[in-house]
Amino acid sequence: MSYRVDFESVSTVGLESSPVANALAGLRANEARYFKNKYNYDFVVEPASDAGETISRVQRILKEERDIVIASEPLEGCTSNVENIRWDHVFYESGLAINVMYPTDDPKRRAVGFKLSEGMDIPDELASRFKFARQRSKLAGTIRGSFFVIKGEY
Fold this sequence. Notes:
Helix content: 10-25%
Shape: globular
Number of helices: 3
Distance between the termini: 27 Å
Order of helices and strands: EHEHEEEEHEE
Strand content: 25-35%
């Protein structure tokens, strides 16, 4: 069952099995606020069992672009299409959130972003490959993030 993420009343619905569920819920709410403010778009997620196509596409991009396999279990995913950009999001049990920004009209802006919930350690599969910058969020506390540019077509 899909869930429209409310960034005004942060909820752990769908994320309860995560050891950092509250921080991950804040991170998810932060994404929802971004989409509402920038695109006037309601951010809706689905359980991993219903978001297989999105999760598979993100896993394929990570594997083919950087030979990365995420060890944590995906909890939720979604694909949003706004202003000629396909956004894929996957939220993992560990507290990791991955988004893929894939503009259909500008291949140079295609990228994968990693965000870590407050209290989450950098996953081993990312630690040696990326440096994570910090940003503060009223909804998510301290978010650590990194990204890489996508070179292939997906």
